[in-house]
TrEMBL record:
One of its GO terms (cellular component) is plasma membrane. It comes from the Bacteria. InterPro entries: T2SS_GspF_dom (IPR018076). It is a multi-pass membrane protein. It is found in: Cell membrane. It comes from Streptomyces griseoluteus. This is Type II secretion system protein GspF domain-containing protein.
């Protein structure tokens, strides 16, 4: 019990120091803002945020600067102080690469979806330019400038459109980027229009409709799977609520889990089952999305 008291005292001192640092930084920012308003020579003054808002802003910037994955290590250090054990630190360090991988996959998914939306916008703008009487090469230049839908492979396609090169081939190369697969359809429409004299605008309209329908289908599927994701997340955080409830009832769950044989066994078994459940739920969601 004495170790737990010492851990709580150290945690309280650390929080007090962090609060003092945040107060000093916020005071410095307020002084700089007042100086800017003083020497601005007129104009409408910006509303000065409250200390609570400034503190939240500093915490948000610190969170973005450190990275979400490293907060598991911070949480492990806090639990290690409260429970007087190194096990939470080891668990927090093990969670850093896992969360880093999850964050990397999320950023890749967002980039892929953004690129797919840009390709759809490119097809729509290109169809409008062609229908307005622009030549395909000039229309592609304007459409790409307005939408940016070719991503990293835009240089070769733009050069081919400007100097009469192999535009379908350049579009096929740009389509290798994740999310830009719709450019393969654009390359096929371009090739058919050039070789057989077919209407490029009509083909682009059909391609735009197909890509939009596919995007809407993915969005609908993601909405249907949001309930499963929320359930899996709730089941994942239930053990934390159990620890808080036990601490509120005076049972000292950290001492039982970290300093007794039965508690360590329950901790290992719970961690194994928790990881297996999260993995299985994520596998089901990924399988549904892939299908």
């Amino acid at each position: 019990m004495a170790d737990v008291g010492v851990g709580e005292a150290v945690l309280g001192a650390g929080l007090a120091c962090a609060g003092g640092v945040a107060w000093v930084v916020n005071a410095r920012h307020q002084g700089v803002r007042r100086a800017r308003l003083l020497f601005a020579g007129g104009g409408v003054a910006e509303p000065v945020p409250t200390p609570w808002e400034r503190g939240l802003g500093e915490l948000r910037r610190l969170y973005e600067r450190v990275g979400a994955e490293w907060w598991t290590l911070v949480a492990g250090l806090v639990l290690a102080l409260l429970g007087a054990s190194v096990i939470p630190v080891v668990a927090g360090a093990a969670g850093v690469p896992v969360l880093r991988r999850v964050g990397k996959a999320r950023r890749a998914r967002l980039m892929r979806e953004g690129r797919a939306d840009a390709v759809i916008a490119l097809c729509g703008v290109l169809a409008g330019e062609v229908r307005a009487g622009q030549q395909p090469g000039e229309a592609l230049l304007r459409a790409e400038r307005d939408s940016g839908g070719l991503g990293e492979g835009h240089a070769a396609a733009i050069a081919a459109a400007r100097f009469g090169g192999d535009v379908p081939g350049a579009l096929a190369v740009a389509a290798r980027q994740p999310g830009a697969e719709g450019l393969l359809g654009l390359a096929a429409c371009w090739r058919v229009a050039v070789d057989q004299g077919a209407g490029l605008a009509a083909g682009l309209d059909r391609l735009d409709g197909a890509l939009r329908a596919e995007r809407d289908q993915r969005a609908d599927l993601r909405a249907q799977l949001s309930g499963a994701r929320a359930t899996a997340l709730l089941l994942a955080v239930l053990p934390l609520f159990g620890l808080l409830l036990g601490a509120a009832m005076g049972a000292d769950p950290l001492r039982v889990l970290l300093h007794t044989g039965a508690g360590l066994g329950c901790l290992v078994a719970g961690a194994v089952f928790e990881g297996a459940g999260i993995w299985w739920a994520a596998r089901i969601v990924r399988g549904a999305e892939a299908a």
